[in-house]
Design goal:
The chain has 139 residues and is of the alpha/beta class. 40% of the residues lie in helices and 21% in strands. It contains 4 helices and 5 strands.
C-alpha cells in the first residue's frame, strides 16, 4: 500500500510524462524544465535533440544563495532564480524556450520562475510555449 505522499508524486510524474509527449527542446529553443521541493526550486535548460543539459540553476547554487540572502519567501526566491537563469541563458544566446512545468500547476513558484525568466529577456523577443494545466486533464 502506497502512502498519500507517494501517490501524489506518482500522479505528478504521470502528468509530467503526458506533457513531455508533446514538448521537447532543441538547441535553438531549449526546454526549461522546473523541479520544486518543499524548500527549493531549480530550473534546467535541456536540449532534447542532443540529450544534454545546457545550463541549470537552483536555490542551492552559490551564485543564487548570494542573491537570495535578503529575499523573504519561496515565491520571491523562485523569481530570482528565474531572472538569474534568464541572464545566464541570454549570455549563451538563448532567447526562446519551451516551458516544461514538470507536472506542477502553472501557479505560484512555478509561475514566478517563468515570469522571472521572461522578465530577464525583456530586451529581446519573449517567446515561451507553456504547457497548460487544462491540457493535462482527462477528457
Amino acid at each position: 500500500m502506497k502512502t498519500k505522499s507517494q501517490l501524489k508524486v506518482l500522479a505528478r510524474k504521470r502528468r509530467h510524462l503526458r506533457v513531455r509527449r508533446r514538448l521537447s527542446g532543441t538547441a535553438e529553443r531549449p526546454r526549461l524544465c522546473v523541479f520544486k521541493s518543499l524548500k527549493h526550486i531549480s530550473g534546467i535548460l535541456v536540449d532534447d535533440g542532443e540529450l544534454r543539459t545546457i545550463t541549470s540553476l537552483s536555490t542551492l547554487s552559490p551564485e543564487v544563495k548570494k542573491a537570495i540572502a535578503e529575499v523573504k519567501g519561496k515565491t520571491a526566491k523562485s523569481r530570482v532564480v528565474g531572472v538569474l537563469l534568464g541572464k545566464k541563458a541570454l549570455s549563451l544566446g538563448i532567447t526562446k524556450i519551451a516551458f516544461d512545468r514538470g507536472g506542477y500547476l502553472f501557479h505560484g513558484r512555478v509561475k514566478a520562475l517563468c515570469d522571472g525568466f521572461m522578465e530577464s529577456l525583456s530586451g529581446t523577443e519573449k517567446t515561451a510555449a507553456k504547457s497548460s494545466p487544462a491540457g493535462d486533464r482527462k477528457k
